[in-house]
From TrEMBL:
InterPro entries: F-box_motif, TPR-like_helical_dom_sf. It comes from the Bacteria. This is Sel1 repeat family protein.
């Protein structure tokens, strides 16, 4: 069969163009996924929605669940007639790909049965997160204990919360407190930011400024947005008494780093409930700085951003417990 060489050249050129286009679209979807999840984890729900929609429409399960969560949160306080219930559609798509948390959000009998089936299979293989999911399905504390014992950090933290909220589980106050401390310490030492925060705000650490300071810096290094803000406040003298002593953490002033950290948070988290307070504190700190110092603070912020993971609230995956 005869084929003109110019036709082959044109065909190969077209195929190369199509391949490049497909690759570019795939890269764009991945970039949207990354950006959307970063914004979602930071609590920047409005800004995350457009990015998550791109990735969710492309079939990414994690983005589908996150987008559904964004819509659910947005519509929580709306009147029933004003709700779109679009979250259910995205939960359903994520659930169809085996997302247990999406199945739990759907919460109909068939979804809960499927969630339990999926979680049970993984739990039988020793998956600590699946054990936590079984706790969320059954509310059987035994599953939560198993999750914690399996080393799942979120399970350890939630177990501490449950013990703290339901005193009937451990009636003796001393035993209950020591049990909570034990689980928080395990999760904190393994790097779970929320456990670090709670652990460092319970006696005796809450009275030990060097220890509190150390835990705060560890959380800030994870780029926990609230810890970064607190770190900036400490370095900026926000917690100083009339004698110039930081009574919260014992930091020495470093206005350039302080400005940089607070500015970084403000520049990235405009939906934060702490935004206005942070903006006011930053303006007060800036009064004692030169223009050169302020620019140096912004340079420090950019270097911090480059050398740390994305800012995050480190929210729990499914539970609304605080």
């Amino acid at each position: 069969m005869y084929t003109h060489s110019s036709a082959l050249t044109t065909l190969f050129s077209l195929l190369n163009t199509l391949s490049s286009l497909i690759a570019r679209l795939t890269n764009e979807q991945e970039a949207a996924r990354k950006k959307g999840l970063e914004l979602y984890n930071l609590g920047e729900y409005r800004d995350s929605e457009a990015y998550l929609t791109i990735a969710a429409t492309a079939g990414d399960r994690e983005s589908q669940y996150a987008l559904a969560e964004v819509i659910r949160r947005r519509e929580n306080n709306l009147k029933e007639e004003d709700k779109t219930h679009a979250d259910g559609e995205w939960y359903a798509l994520a659930a169809a790909q085996g997302d247990v948390y999406a199945l739990l959000r759907l919460a109909d009998d068939a979804s809960l049965r499927q969630a339990k089936l999926l979680a049970q299979g993984r739990a039988d293989s020793g998956d600590g997160e699946a054990m936590l999911q079984l706790y969320e399905i059954t509310k059987d504390i035994a599953w939560l204990k198993k999750s914690a014992e399996a080393g799942f950090l979120e399970g350890q933290y939630i177990l501490a919360i449950v013990y703290d909220k339901d005193h009937t589980l451990i009636p003796d106050a001393i035993e209950r407190s020591s049990t909570i401390d034990r689980w928080l310490k395990r999760a904190a030492e393994a790097g779970f930011s929320r456990a670090m925060h709670w652990h460092s705000n319970r006696p005796p650490i809450s009275h030990d400024l060097p220890a509190r300071r150390e835990w705060l810096i560890k959380r800030a290094q994870l780029n926990d947005v609230n810890a970064v803000l607190e770190y900036g406040y400490g370095l900026g003298g926000v917690y100083e008494d009339e004698n110039g002593i930081d009574t919260e953490y014992g930091f020495e002033k470093d206005l350039i780093k302080s400005y940089g950290l607070i500015w970084l948070v403000l520049d990235n988290s405009r939906e934060s409930p702490r935004y206005n307070t942070a903006l006011n504190n930053l303006s007060i700190i800036a009064q004692d700085m030169s223009k050169e110092d302020i620019e140096a603070g912004k340079v420090f912020a950019q270097e911090w951003k480059r050398t740390h993971p994305p800012l995050s609230e480190f929210r729990l995956t499914y539970s609304d417990l605080q």
